[in-house]
Every structure is written in C-alpha cells, then in structure tokens.
Design brief:
This protein is an alpha+beta fold. It folds into two domains: 10-86, Nucleic acid-binding proteins (OB fold (Dihydrolipoamide Acetyltransferase, E2P)), CATH 2.40.50; 136-255, no CATH class. 40% of the residues lie in helices and 21% in strands. The longest helix has 20 residues, at 116-135. The radius of gyration is 20 Å and the shape is elongated. Bound molecules: zinc ion. The site of zinc ion (ZN) has 8 residues, from strand 7.
C-alpha cells in the first residue's frame, strides 16, 4: 500500500476471509491486483439477509466502492458488486475446503509484504485457481498445480532434476529440508523419504507444470495426495508458515 500515492475509490478484488467486527459489521480481507491486500469494513453486514450477504462471502470476486484515505489500511465499504460468486465452492464441502487453502495461502503470502509484483501474480493465480476449482472435475489436481505454482512464485520450487546433494540423476527419494531429489548414496545422510520411480516422475511433472497445463497433466497423473503433502511441506518449511486449512481437507479425504 505504501507505494501508491493516490487510489481510485473503485477496485476489483477477491475476498480472502470475512470476520466479525464491532456493531454488526464485518471485516473483509480482500486481495486486489492493483493494490495488494486491503481490508474493508462492511457496516451492518451481519444484519443484512440473503441477497446482499452473498456479495461478501469468501472467494467472491467483487468490485468494491470506497473512499481512499492516505495512510489508512482499513476502509469503510460503500458497496460491493459481485463479479464472480463461485457458488459451486460453497455447495461442495471438498471444494470449499480447497478454496480455504488457496485463500489462506494468498493471505499469508501477502501478509506485511510490500512486494507489489508478488501480490499481482498471487491475485492472478488465486483468480485462476478458484475458477478452475469450481469448473474442473479433478479438484485435487487443481490444488496440486496451485501449490506447485505458489512454490515457484515464492522461489522455493523443489529441485527435481538431480540429487540436491551430489548432482546425480539416479534419484530415489525426496528431502524437503534439502530442497528436492536425492540419490541412493546421499539418502542416508538426509531426512529424505524414499519414493517409487513412478511417484518421483509424477512429482517432477507436477513441479514443472502450471494450472494452465491442467488438461494435459490430467491424462498423466494418478492420485496426487503425496504430491500435495510434499508441496505443503516445502511451503511450510521454507516460509515458516502453517497452512491451517490443510488438516481439515486431509480429514475430509479420509471420510469420502
Ligand atoms: Zn546424491
């Protein structure tokens, strides 16, 4: 926010989360392409029923009207017009649990960050991820590709081309702490987990792929829960974060 001297009073953004505020108000954390993350107070929103309440649901892409005030980080919202509701994400528990992971990551990565370019790329990625999560059949693959792109965006993409210790291409496992593949000889000296050649091949493919490659990758991958867990481990290890929405998603998988 500090890098812009003036701001329009109309901005498009995606609601990351909604929390109760004083006097029946709701605090919205919104990721915008133009200004990074901003917060809006929607007055009396908790008293509004049905139609208008939909405008402030998490994951919704809306146009927000507000008065910009220099030096402020929280703005009073005048109105919100829905551009994309993502209704399907609220009607399916599995998809909504993944949407929560996507939003939390976008929230955590823009927390106290002044990197304008990063916020812009994260906005585009979240926008694309939420849309695909609603429309594509394999929600697990959408999550895997989103996580892979976030790792790449954050500069912590795993090294999946060679052993991270010695450079050998005969790899047998993955060490999160060391940043990627390891060979047989180096494995005992690391915290690496052993994987089958097929699993390593799939993780390599997903690491190199982007959300836009969804339909190509769909033909080539099997269940990608191992990969998702690995990407989460990489993100949590290298950024010192905890993705709180992830355990709930894993619990859902055990029920289905
Ligand atoms: Zn090695």
């Amino acid at each position: 926010m500090g890098m812009v001297s003036s701001m329009n009073d109309k901005v498009t953004g995606i609601i990351l989360k909604q929390s109760d505020y004083k006097d029946h108000s709701v605090l919205l954390s919104v990721l915008t392409r133009e200004y990074g993350k901003v917060s809006f107070v929607a007055s009396g929103a908790r008293k509004i029923t049905s139609k208008n309440a939909m405008n402030i649901l998490p994951y919704t892409k809306s146009e927000f009207l507000f008065d910009y005030k220099e030096g402020k980080t929280i703005f009073r919202l005048k109105s919100a017009t829905t551009i994309q509701l993502h209704r399907g994400l609220h009607e399916d528990l599995m998809r909504s649990s993944i949407a929560a992971i996507l939003s939390e990551i976008a929230d955590v990565f823009t927390y106290q960050s002044d990197d304008y370019g990063l916020a812009q790329r994260l906005y585009d990625l979240l926008d694309q991820g939420l849309t695909m999560l609603e429309t594509e059949t394999n929600s697990q693959l959408v999550l895997a590709l989103f996580l892979s792109e976030v790792a790449s965006l954050g500069g912590v993409s795993p090294n999946v081309d060679e052993c991270v210790i010695c450079g050998s291409t005969k790899v047998v496992g993955i060490s999160v702490a060391d940043g990627g593949f390891v060979c047989e000889r180096c494995l005992p000296s690391t915290q690496a987990t052993r994987y089958t050649p097929e699993q390593l091949k799939q993780f390599r493919l997903l690491t190199k792929a982007k959300l836009e490659h969804y339909s190509i990758v769909l033909e080539l991958v099997d269940n990608c829960m191992h990969d998702i867990q690995l990407f989460v481990d990489f993100l949590e290890t290298f950024f010192g974060i905890k993705i709180r929405a992830f355990p709930f998603y894993k619990r859902l998988l055990t029920i289905e």
